[in-house]
Design a protein that fits this description.
Blueprint: H1 14-23, E1 38-44, H2 47-62, E2 66-72, H3 77-83, E3 89-94, H4 95-105, E4 110-117, E5 120-123, E6 138-142, H5 145-148, H6 150-158, E7 162-163, E8 177-179, E9 185-189, H7 194-197, E10 203-207, H8 208-213, E11 223-224, E12 234-239, H9 247-256, H10 259-267, H11 281-288
Parallel strand pairs: 1-2, 1-3, 6-9, 6-10
Antiparallel strand pairs: 3-12, 4-12, 5-10, 5-11, 7-8
């Protein structure tokens, strides 16, 4: 059941990316930054991004700002439209994804500030423990490079798989599997389709948010990341270099880092998504990029 591994973001190449932007209404709009009191954002269409954005919109409006948010499910175009200046910022990705995207696509986008932690686990609709997984079990992994090794790292920690020792989870892949005593078979799936794939496999990797969308809580996972293990995967707002030195950048961060937004996350999924806003973002990225 092997699927050929795709390199991250072969989806957006040349004119195809431009055509895609036009077809979903993202191209040809008013240039970001042309209105000093308007902030243009492109945001993923999911509760942990949408609801805090709505709160931020209200808070910004009270201070005379207009936050225009465009909601999408695409995970490729948001970095391109920020890089080319059509939007001021985006909110859809974690740090590891952004770093891999920049290497693959050479976009001019950088992390602006943290929003919420994005832990993940290995779930199953068929088995209740990792030990119950049978020989030859089929396990779904995310195809994108930034997330591909996370389940492998959890399996290694659980002692049911052995991978290259000392290698960062950011760079683990199936090529690093040294021992696979139960002959698990891994199928690689687009991250947005992982929850849909779960019924068809023996187990699969899921972000806690995707699990919640199909009724699964962190305690239902066969394996789950510890907080420190999930640190490269903290979600964030990203923008062009220098954005955080502007009034727009400061106003946007203040709204997203408000007590109202923190309270929303605390009440969502019993607080499964943390708000590590006091972490040193630049220091984190420097350590992950070694």
């Amino acid at each position: 059941m092997a699927i050929t591994r795709r390199k991250l973001l072969t989806l957006a190449a040349g004119s195809a990316a431009i055509l895609g932007l036009t077809s979903c209404g993202l191209a040809g709009g008013q240039a970001a930054g042309s209105d000093d009191k308007t902030i243009k954002m492109i945001v993923t269409e999911s509760a942990p991004s949408q609801e805090p954005t709505k709160i931020a919109q209200k808070l910004l409006a009270e201070d005379g700002w207009t936050l225009e948010a465009t909601y999408v499910t695409d995970i490729v175009q948001p970095n391109h439209v920020v890089s080319n200046g059509e939007y001021d910022a985006n909110f859809f990705q974690h740090g590891a994804y952004l770093e891999q995207f920049k290497k693959d696509q050479n976009v001019d986008v950088e992390p602006a500030f943290y929003t919420y932690s994005s832990p993940a686990g290995v779930y199953s609709n068929k088995y209740e423990s990792i030990e119950e997984l049978p020989e030859g079990a089929t396990i779904a992994l995310p195809v994108d490079t930034a997330n591909n090794g996370r389940a492998l790292a959890m399996f290694d920690k659980a002692g049911v798989l052995k991978v290259t020792e000392g290698k960062s989870v950011l760079h683990l892949s199936q090529n690093d599997i040294l021992q696979n005593p139960k002959k698990f078979k891994f199928v690689e799936v687009d991250q947005q389709s992982l929850s849909k794939t779960l019924p068809d496999v023996d187990a699969g990797f899921l972000f806690v948010r995707l699990g919640a969308e199909i009724g699964l809580a962190p305690e239902d996972a066969l394996l789950f990341e510890e907080e420190e293990e999930a640190l490269p995967y903290v979600n964030l707002v990203a923008a062009k270099p220098g954005f955080m030195d502007t009034e727009k950048g400061k106003a946007l961060e203040s709204a997203y880092h408000s007590e109202e937004v923190r309270e929303w996350y605390a009440n969502y999924l019993d607080g499964a998504l943390g708000t590590p806003w006091d972490r040193d973002l630049k220091a984190d990225f420097a350590s992950w990029n070694k």
